[in-house]
C-alpha cells in the first residue's frame, strides 16, 4: 500500500468514521461533540507551539511527566495536547485546566491535516508510542517541522501486521520522523526491521518509569472508610469478556477468598453493563459512586474516573486487566511503583519487555486463566511474606529504570 491508496481509502471511509462518532455519541455524548476539530476546523494559534499527541487516558497519564518537563524547559512555548477519545480529553482538562491547550486529533487525511497544521504551526510535534500517521508525518516533514515518535514501542505482533499489509508505507513514514526514541532494545530492533534508518532510532527508555505515581490521599482515605478493615483485591482496567471470566472463577473459589473484590472496567460506558452482570450472578455489590460501606459486600464496582492510583493504594493485591483477552494488557508499573503484588494474564504483548522483566525479577505473577488467577490470589492472601516480597521487588525494578524523560528533553532541545 502507498500513501495515495491509503488516503483514497481514508476519504471513502470518512463518512463512516464521522457516522461512527455520532452513533457512539448516543451512548456517550462527548463522542458527537467537537467533531469539527477532528475535521481540521480549529482556531488559529498565534504563539509558538509544542504539539504532544496522546491517544487516550493511559497515554496521557504516562505523558504527564514529559509534558511537565516541556512546560518547565520551554516557558516561551505553549504546549498543545491532542487526544482521540473523550475520556482522554477530559483527563487533560481536569489535570491541566488552562495550563495547556487542547484539541481533538485530526483524521489522517491530506486536506484535513494540512488545514490543522496551518492553524497551529507547531515548532515541533511529539507523537507517543505507536502513533504512526502517514499523512500527518508526511505533511509535518514537508513543512520542515521536527517530528519525534517518543516512548515508541512496536510489538512483534504489530511488526508482522505492518509487514503484511503496509510495509512500504510504514517504511516511508518512519523515515520522515526526525527521531524514533524507543522504550527498549527490542522495539528499536523491530522499527529498524520495519525499515527505519539506524541513525533515526535511539533507545531513550520508557517514560512510564519516570511517573513516580502517587495516590491522592484524600481519595484513598475515602475509599478506606468505605472498605473498612477488609483485605482488598483490585481488578484494574478490565475489558468485555474478562469480567465474566473473573466472576465465574470467583464463584468457584469464593470460599477461599476472604477479601473484597474491586472491579474497575477500562471504559466508563461499560460501568452499568458490568454492574448488571455482577447482579445477574447473585453477588452482593455496590457502586463506588454511592459511597456506601462495603461491610457485607463481595464486589465493589469502581465506577469512578481518576481514582485508579487510590484503588491501588488501598489494595493488597492487583490484577491488571486486558490480559485475559486479546487486548495485550495494561500498565503494570503503576501498582509496581506502590510496591503492590501484581498479577496479569497470558496476553501482555503491549508490555512484553516490562512483563518479562517483572517475572525475571520475581516481581509479578503471570497466570494462564481466571481459575489460576484466583488460586494465586488465595495463596497471596494467606502468605504476607510472599506478597510483600513481590511488591518490594516490583518497586525496586520500577525505580531502577528511570531517566527516559531527561533523555527525551535533550532530544527536543536539539530541535528547538
Shape: globular
Low-confidence stretches: none
Query: Beta-sheet strand percentage?
Result: 15-25%
From the N-terminal CA to the C-terminal CA, the straight-line distance is 34 Å
Query: Helical residue percent?
Result: 40-55%
Mean pLDDT comes to 95
What class would the helix/strand composition place it in? alpha/beta
Strand order of the largest sheet: 3-2-1-4-5-6-7
Q: State the total count of DSSP E strands.
A: 14
Radius of gyration: 22 Å
Largest sheet: 7 strands, parallel
Number of continuous helical runs: 18
What does this 3D model show about the protein?
It is built from 18 helices and 14 strands. Helix 5 (110-120) crosses helix 6 (134-142). It is 48% helix and 15% strand. With 416 residues, the chain is an alpha/beta fold. The protein has helices spanning 3-27, 35-38, 57-73, 86-96, 110-120, 134-142, 156-165, 167-174, 185-194, 217-227, 242-253, 271-280, 308-314, 333-337, 352-360, 370-381, 384-400, 404-415; strands spanning 49-53, 78-83, 101-104, 122-128, 147-152, 179-182, 201-203, 232-238, 260-265, 285-287, 299-301, 317-320, 342-344, 365-366. It is globular. The strands form two sheets. It has a seven-stranded parallel beta sheet, with helices on both faces. A seven-stranded parallel beta sheet has the order 10-11-9-8-12-13-14, with helices on both faces.
